[in-house]
Structure formats: C-alpha cells, structure tokens
Amino acid sequence: MNPFKIIGWAGIAIAVLGAFVEVPYAGAILVVLGLVAGVSVAAEDHVRVLVTALVLGSLSGVLGNIPGVGMYLAAIASAVGTFAAGAALTIISRNVWERFKP
Length: 102
Hints:
Elements: H1 3-20, H2 26-37, H3 46-59, H4 70-100
Helix pairs in contact: 1-2, 1-4, 2-4, 3-4
C-alpha cells in the first residue's frame, strides 16, 4: 500500500475517533498529516483539495443541526477539513515555490 494512502487513512481514523473521545493534539496531528499528504496530490486534483478544505472548514457546523448524530458528524467533517487544510497548505506552498524559485 502507498505510504501516502496510509497517512490519509490515519487522518480519517483520527478524525472519526476524535468525534467520540478526546485525542490529545488531534488538530496538530491532523495538520501535520495533511501537510505530508499534500505532497502526493496530483496537479489535476489541486483545486479539488483546496475547495474541500474551504467547504469542510466553513460548512461543517451545519451538520450539527441533525438531531442525535449531528454533533458527531460536524466534528468528523471539521476534523477532515483540518486534514484537508494541511494538504492545501502544502499545495499552495509548492505552487508559490514553483512560481518564484530562483
């Protein structure tokens, strides 16, 4: 299995687990995993990752309106958005570097 796929699965596992139990430094772990996972994102998927990070980060709270399971779904979506934001930061950094490298 591809190591970047393992990193992605680990990020999803932490996001889901963090919705139900307290995971120390979950946000920091998700960002670091996302930063590493962003290296493997193909150029044709850059926009998809950037939009995913923005949408999950800003709209995940809407899921909290679902009775019973909403708060868990909102927590999972927010955590996955944090993971995607880390990947988006890597993509943006790589794009800036490619544009302005010496």
